[in-house]
Amino acid sequence: MPSLPHHEVEIIEVLRRSEHGMTLPFICRGNDGEIYFVKGSGAGRQSQINEWISGNLALAMGIPVAPFSLVDVPEELAEVLSAEDALELGRGSAFGSVEQRITELAFSQIPDVPPEIRGSLLVFDWWISNVDRQLTRNGGNANLFWDAEEQRLVVIDHNQAFDPDFDPDHFFRYHAFKDSVPDVFDDLIERQHYTDRMEQALREWDGIIQAIPEEWFYIDPEMTLKLDFDPDSFLKHLQRFRSDNFWNRK
């Protein structure tokens, strides 16, 4: 079982702000030499929590997510940023995902992705109610990258997971790997296979929650306004796979 990423990366340079993605993350250099897409306080505390929980559950399930870490943004970095950027990036703990120097997955490349990976990601996104994985022949934004040389998929972005307005019909109509539905949801052996993997992943739950930085539970930097986040409700949502309704796509 993969261990939780440690909070050991310090951001030493802000290179620029991304022009893509809902949260427009900051592109930064860490003291480990890696380039990170950093989602600070301006991305929203719930967004950071969603990324952390989903990323770690993905690791525990064997989903090929881009490497990520809790990163530390030192206060002195604010001195070289505009007032707006300094506020958006914030200081202290943030979520950082390592930059992937590969290309976005094209619709025509979907058959290149191994069937097991396609099925796993379909189940995983259904499990965490992540609708942000859309890709059709007319385009989309699947937050998936494909390394053609190594024939591997890389998965990013889970800030929209646990969507309270999640629409199952929309999910199964537009998910990049929707064609895998019969192979997974209608096969009792496959269902048991994924049930076992989700059970295994949930064994990491307590550690995942305990590793969330304390400041993420507050909306304001002064830590006076508590975020409306209930870990137990998230856990209850994830335990749906133990019901037939989960596999009946309800």
TrEMBL record:
<dbReference type="InterPro" id="IPR046748">
    <property type="entry name" value="HipA_2"/>
</dbReference>
<feature type="domain" description="HipA-like kinase">
    <location>
        <begin position="11"/>
        <end position="249"/>
    </location>
</feature>
<protein>
    <recommendedName>
        <fullName>HipA-like kinase domain-containing protein</fullName>
    </recommendedName>
</protein>
<dbReference type="Pfam" id="PF20613">
    <property type="entry name" value="HipA_2"/>
</dbReference>
